[in-house]
Amino acid sequence: MAVVTTRQSMLFQVILAFVLFLSILNNVNAGITSTFIRSEWPATDIPLDNEAFAVPNGHNAPQQVHITQGDYDGRSVIISWVSPDEPGSSKVHYGKSENNYEFTAEGTVNNYTFYKYKSGYIHHCLVDNLEYSTKYYYKIGSGDTAREFWFETPPEINPDTPYKFGIIGDLGQTYNSLSTLEHYIQSGAKAVLFLGDLSYADRYDYNDIGLRWDTWGRFVERSTAYQPWIWNAGNHEIDYFPHLEEVTPFKNYLERYTTPYKACKSSSPLWYAIRRASAHIIVLSSYSPFVKYTPQWTWLREELKRVDREKTPWLIVLMHVPIYNSNSAHFMEGESMRSVFESWFVEYKVDVIFAGHVHAYERSYRISNIRYNITSGDAYPVPDKSAPVYITVGDGGNQEGLADRFLDPQPEYSAFREASYGHSTLEIMNRTHALYHWNRNDDGKKLATDAFVLRNQYWANNQRRRKLKKHYLRSIQLKRIGYWLIRSKGSQSIVIHRLHP
Asked: The CATH number of the domain where 168 resides is what?
C-alpha cells in the first residue's frame, strides 16, 4: 500500500510539473463560468416546528446564544443570549476546565418592541482578560435550566500564526441554509467572517418579523455559541417598515448582535476592526454614509494607518455589496463605494475583500480601476499587483434563491463564477501564504469546487518583486485524481477546480 501511495504521489508531482510547463508555453485566457446546474431544494424557510429551531427545555432557559470578539486583539469575547420569559441572571460563569467555573462576569440586559412584537430579554456580557490559545467553558442561566458551552481563544498575535476562518454570507433559514451551516461546522475553521443578511426576517410582516429573528438565533446557535462570528450588516438587516411605524434602521439587528466597535475608535457598531491571530480584519457598512468626511470615511482612513503588517500581515476587508460583480443581480451597486475606497485598498495592499449580497459565487483576479474617471484614464479594470482579490460569497442558502444570470461574455477580471450555494474557508499558513476554498453545497454534499493559494500582498510580493503580467491560465483535466489544475501567471498561485459539470 505504501508503494502504491508513493507512486501516486510521484505521478501527481510529474503531472503538476507538466501542467506548469504547458502554462508557460501556451497561455490561454481562461476565466471560468461553471456550467454546473444545481437541482432545486425547497426555497422556503424551514417550518417553525422543525427541530432546527428547537427551544431549550425548561422555564426561561437561555437561547439564541452567540459570541463575537469583544476587543481589538482577541483577548475578550462578548457572549449574548436571550431569556424568553423574564430577565433572569446576566452573569457568565467561566473557567478553563469543564464544570469548574472559577470566574464570573456581569453583563447587561434589555428588551425592545417591534410593531406589536416584544422581544425576550437580551443579554450581552463582555468576558475579558482571557489567555490566548485557551479553551474556556462557560455557563449561563440558573438552576436546572442553566446551559453550558465552550469556546477557544485565538493564538497570540504573531505574523506567522496559522489560523482558519470560515466565510458565510446571506444565510437565511432554509434547508439550503442548514446544509451550508452543517458543512461549515465540519470544516475545522475557528471563526466566521459573516458578510451580512442574517435571518431574512424582513421578508415577513407584522409579528412574524420578530419571531423569525428568534428562530434564526436558535438555528445558528450550534455554531455561534462555540466560536465567534464576526458580524457585518446587510440590506436585510435594515428592517424599514413605514406601514408598521418602524423606521429606525437596523433596530432588530443592533439590539441582538453587538460588535467591539469602541475598541477600534469607531463611532458605530456597523463599521469596526479587529485583529485575530495574524489577520487585521476591517468590517465596512455598505448602507451607511461613506463619502468624504463622513464618520465611516474618516474612521477607515485612520484605521488603515493603524495596520501593522509586521504583526498582522493579512489585511482582510468585509462588506456586504461587492465592488466587482459580473452577475445581473445587483450589478454595479458597489460602484459608489469602489469610487471612494478602492484607491485606499490598493495603496494599503489589501489581500482580499469578501462580500455577499449576490446569491452566487465569484472570484476575481487582482485588478483595479483606480485610473478611471469620466473624462480620461482606463475605462476598464486592469491587472494590478497591489490590488485585492475580490470574492463574493453571497450563497449561504436563503429563500430568495440563486442569482444564476451571469453577464456574457465573462469579464476579463472574473476568474471563476458559479450559481450555487456554499461557504468558503481561508486557512492562513504563515505570513506569506494562505489556502482558500469555496465549497459547493451539491444537494447536501460538500464539494471543494474552487481553491487557490493566496499570496500575501505585503510579504510575498515584496519578496518576489515580479512584474505583473496579464493573468493567463492553462488547464488540463486530470481524470485519475479528479481535479483541474490551473496555473495563473501573476500574483496568485495554483488554482484547483473539481472535475464536476
From this structure: 3.60.21.10
